[in-house]
Write a structure and sequence with these properties.
single chain; 6 strands; Rossmann fold; alpha/beta
Length: 208
Protein backbone atom coordinates (compact mmCIF):
# COMPACT_ATOMS: atom_id res chain seq x y z
CA UNK A 1 0.00 0.00 0.00
CA UNK A 2 1.09 3.51 -0.66
CA UNK A 3 3.04 5.90 1.54
CA UNK A 4 -0.09 7.58 2.93
CA UNK A 5 -0.65 4.51 5.11
CA UNK A 6 2.94 3.34 5.48
CA UNK A 7 3.67 4.08 9.14
CA UNK A 8 0.51 2.35 10.35
CA UNK A 9 1.52 -0.99 8.82
CA UNK A 10 3.81 -1.98 11.68
CA UNK A 11 2.56 -5.11 13.50
CA UNK A 12 0.49 -4.53 16.61
CA UNK A 13 -0.72 -1.08 15.65
CA UNK A 14 -4.31 -0.14 16.46
CA UNK A 15 -5.88 1.48 13.43
CA UNK A 16 -9.33 3.03 13.12
CA UNK A 17 -10.89 2.88 9.66
CA UNK A 18 -13.18 5.77 8.72
CA UNK A 19 -14.76 5.12 5.35
CA UNK A 20 -16.98 7.37 3.30
CA UNK A 21 -17.46 9.58 0.29
CA UNK A 22 -16.08 12.67 2.08
CA UNK A 23 -18.13 14.79 -0.34
CA UNK A 24 -16.87 17.08 1.08
CA UNK A 25 -14.70 16.33 4.10
CA UNK A 26 -15.45 18.67 7.02
CA UNK A 27 -14.56 19.34 10.64
CA UNK A 28 -17.06 16.73 11.79
CA UNK A 29 -14.82 14.04 10.26
CA UNK A 30 -11.82 15.52 12.07
CA UNK A 31 -13.80 15.61 15.31
CA UNK A 32 -14.66 11.92 14.95
CA UNK A 33 -11.03 11.01 14.24
CA UNK A 34 -9.60 12.85 17.22
CA UNK A 35 -12.34 11.50 19.48
CA UNK A 36 -11.73 7.92 18.33
CA UNK A 37 -7.96 8.25 18.71
CA UNK A 38 -8.39 9.33 22.30
CA UNK A 39 -11.17 7.13 23.67
CA UNK A 40 -10.29 3.93 21.74
CA UNK A 41 -6.54 4.28 22.38
CA UNK A 42 -5.74 4.08 18.65
CA UNK A 43 -2.40 4.75 17.01
CA UNK A 44 -3.90 6.15 13.80
CA UNK A 45 -7.16 6.68 11.94
CA UNK A 46 -7.22 5.98 8.20
CA UNK A 47 -9.70 7.98 6.14
CA UNK A 48 -10.76 5.71 3.29
CA UNK A 49 -12.12 8.04 0.61
CA UNK A 50 -14.44 5.89 -1.49
CA UNK A 51 -14.35 6.16 -5.29
CA UNK A 52 -18.15 5.74 -5.29
CA UNK A 53 -20.50 4.76 -2.49
CA UNK A 54 -22.87 2.11 -3.95
CA UNK A 55 -25.76 3.59 -1.94
CA UNK A 56 -25.26 7.15 -3.17
CA UNK A 57 -25.96 8.67 -6.59
CA UNK A 58 -23.10 9.67 -8.87
CA UNK A 59 -24.75 13.01 -9.56
CA UNK A 60 -23.19 15.69 -7.37
CA UNK A 61 -20.19 13.53 -6.43
CA UNK A 62 -16.92 15.46 -6.72
CA UNK A 63 -13.94 13.76 -8.34
CA UNK A 64 -11.88 11.36 -6.23
CA UNK A 65 -8.63 13.35 -6.46
CA UNK A 66 -10.42 16.50 -5.34
CA UNK A 67 -12.11 14.78 -2.41
CA UNK A 68 -8.83 13.23 -1.23
CA UNK A 69 -7.02 16.58 -1.44
CA UNK A 70 -9.71 18.35 0.58
CA UNK A 71 -9.82 15.56 3.15
CA UNK A 72 -6.06 15.88 3.69
CA UNK A 73 -6.44 19.61 4.20
CA UNK A 74 -9.22 19.03 6.74
CA UNK A 75 -7.55 16.18 8.69
CA UNK A 76 -4.67 18.35 9.98
CA UNK A 77 -3.23 15.68 12.26
CA UNK A 78 -0.28 13.37 11.65
CA UNK A 79 -2.24 10.45 13.11
CA UNK A 80 -5.09 10.87 10.59
CA UNK A 81 -3.95 9.46 7.26
CA UNK A 82 -5.99 10.07 4.13
CA UNK A 83 -6.05 8.17 0.87
CA UNK A 84 -8.08 6.33 -1.76
CA UNK A 85 -7.20 2.88 -0.46
CA UNK A 86 -10.29 1.21 -1.91
CA UNK A 87 -9.33 2.42 -5.38
CA UNK A 88 -5.91 0.83 -4.87
CA UNK A 89 -7.37 -2.42 -3.56
CA UNK A 90 -10.02 -2.52 -6.27
CA UNK A 91 -12.86 -3.00 -3.76
CA UNK A 92 -16.33 -1.49 -3.92
CA UNK A 93 -17.95 -2.80 -0.74
CA UNK A 94 -16.78 -2.35 2.85
CA UNK A 95 -16.93 -6.08 3.52
CA UNK A 96 -14.45 -6.70 0.69
CA UNK A 97 -12.19 -3.83 1.78
CA UNK A 98 -11.95 -5.30 5.27
CA UNK A 99 -11.22 -8.77 3.93
CA UNK A 100 -8.43 -7.40 1.72
CA UNK A 101 -6.88 -5.43 4.59
CA UNK A 102 -6.95 -8.40 6.94
CA UNK A 103 -5.24 -10.56 4.30
CA UNK A 104 -2.53 -7.99 3.64
CA UNK A 105 -2.02 -6.82 7.22
CA UNK A 106 -3.00 -9.74 9.48
CA UNK A 107 -1.12 -8.40 12.51
CA UNK A 108 -2.78 -4.97 12.56
CA UNK A 109 -5.67 -4.39 14.96
CA UNK A 110 -8.38 -2.69 12.92
CA UNK A 111 -11.53 -1.00 14.25
CA UNK A 112 -14.28 0.11 11.90
CA UNK A 113 -15.52 3.61 12.77
CA UNK A 114 -18.95 4.84 11.73
CA UNK A 115 -21.59 7.32 12.77
CA UNK A 116 -24.86 6.27 14.32
CA UNK A 117 -26.60 7.17 11.05
CA UNK A 118 -24.70 4.34 9.36
CA UNK A 119 -25.54 1.85 12.09
CA UNK A 120 -29.21 2.62 11.45
CA UNK A 121 -28.93 1.56 7.80
CA UNK A 122 -25.96 -0.83 7.72
CA UNK A 123 -28.34 -3.76 7.15
CA UNK A 124 -28.64 -2.42 3.59
CA UNK A 125 -24.90 -2.83 2.99
CA UNK A 126 -23.47 -5.74 1.02
CA UNK A 127 -22.50 -8.56 3.42
CA UNK A 128 -23.27 -6.38 6.42
CA UNK A 129 -23.30 -9.15 9.03
CA UNK A 130 -19.82 -10.23 7.87
CA UNK A 131 -18.59 -6.70 8.64
CA UNK A 132 -19.56 -7.23 12.28
CA UNK A 133 -17.70 -10.53 12.28
CA UNK A 134 -14.60 -9.15 10.57
CA UNK A 135 -13.46 -6.37 12.94
CA UNK A 136 -14.62 -4.62 16.11
CA UNK A 137 -16.90 -1.65 15.41
CA UNK A 138 -17.12 1.71 17.16
CA UNK A 139 -20.35 3.63 16.52
CA UNK A 140 -20.00 7.33 17.17
CA UNK A 141 -22.86 9.47 18.40
CA UNK A 142 -24.53 11.72 15.80
CA UNK A 143 -27.36 14.18 16.41
CA UNK A 144 -30.88 12.76 15.92
CA UNK A 145 -29.63 9.28 14.90
CA UNK A 146 -28.26 7.55 17.99
CA UNK A 147 -31.50 6.56 19.71
CA UNK A 148 -32.99 4.93 16.62
CA UNK A 149 -29.71 3.29 15.65
CA UNK A 150 -29.28 1.69 19.07
CA UNK A 151 -32.64 -0.09 18.68
CA UNK A 152 -32.44 -0.73 14.93
CA UNK A 153 -32.10 -3.98 12.98
CA UNK A 154 -28.30 -4.36 13.19
CA UNK A 155 -28.15 -3.35 16.86
CA UNK A 156 -30.81 -5.92 17.73
CA UNK A 157 -29.14 -8.65 15.66
CA UNK A 158 -25.81 -8.16 17.46
CA UNK A 159 -27.18 -7.00 20.82
CA UNK A 160 -25.36 -9.79 22.65
CA UNK A 161 -22.02 -8.52 21.35
CA UNK A 162 -22.36 -4.91 22.44
CA UNK A 163 -19.63 -3.95 24.91
CA UNK A 164 -19.92 -1.58 27.83
CA UNK A 165 -17.90 1.54 28.70
CA UNK A 166 -15.12 -0.40 30.43
CA UNK A 167 -14.28 -2.24 27.21
CA UNK A 168 -13.91 0.86 25.04
CA UNK A 169 -10.16 1.44 25.37
CA UNK A 170 -9.43 -2.21 24.57
CA UNK A 171 -11.96 -2.57 21.76
CA UNK A 172 -9.19 -2.94 19.16
CA UNK A 173 -8.04 -6.10 20.97
CA UNK A 174 -11.50 -7.66 21.16
CA UNK A 175 -12.45 -10.69 19.12
CA UNK A 176 -15.30 -9.77 16.75
CA UNK A 177 -18.17 -9.50 16.75
CA UNK A 178 -17.77 -6.70 19.29
CA UNK A 179 -19.15 -3.18 19.10
CA UNK A 180 -19.63 -0.10 21.24
CA UNK A 181 -21.78 3.01 21.00
CA UNK A 182 -19.71 6.03 21.97
CA UNK A 183 -21.60 8.98 23.38
CA UNK A 184 -19.96 12.35 23.80
CA UNK A 185 -19.80 15.88 22.48
CA UNK A 186 -21.52 15.94 19.12
CA UNK A 187 -20.41 17.91 16.07
CA UNK A 188 -23.16 19.47 13.92
CA UNK A 189 -21.32 19.42 10.57
CA UNK A 190 -22.94 17.51 7.72
CA UNK A 191 -21.64 16.95 4.18
CA UNK A 192 -25.19 17.07 2.76
CA UNK A 193 -25.84 20.39 4.52
CA UNK A 194 -22.58 21.82 3.17
CA UNK A 195 -23.50 20.76 -0.36
CA UNK A 196 -26.98 22.22 0.00
CA UNK A 197 -25.58 25.54 1.23
CA UNK A 198 -23.23 25.70 -1.77
CA UNK A 199 -25.93 24.82 -4.33
CA UNK A 200 -27.18 27.78 -6.41
CA UNK A 201 -30.80 28.80 -6.09
CA UNK A 202 -33.13 28.84 -9.10
CA UNK A 203 -32.21 32.46 -9.67
CA UNK A 204 -28.55 31.56 -9.94
CA UNK A 205 -27.49 33.01 -6.58
CA UNK A 206 -25.90 30.87 -3.89
CA UNK A 207 -27.56 30.43 -0.52
CA UNK A 208 -26.17 32.62 2.24
Amino acid sequence: MRAAFGAGRRPGRRIGLLGGSFNPAHDGHRHISLWALRVLDLDEVWWLVSPQNPLKPRAGMAGLVRRVALARAVARDRRSRVGALEAELGTLYTVDTLAALRRRLPRIRFVWLMGADNLAQIHRWQGWSRIFRAVPIAVLDRPTYSLGAATGHAARRFAGHRRGPRAVRRLALAKPPAWVLLRGRRHPASASAIRAAARPTEGGRAHT
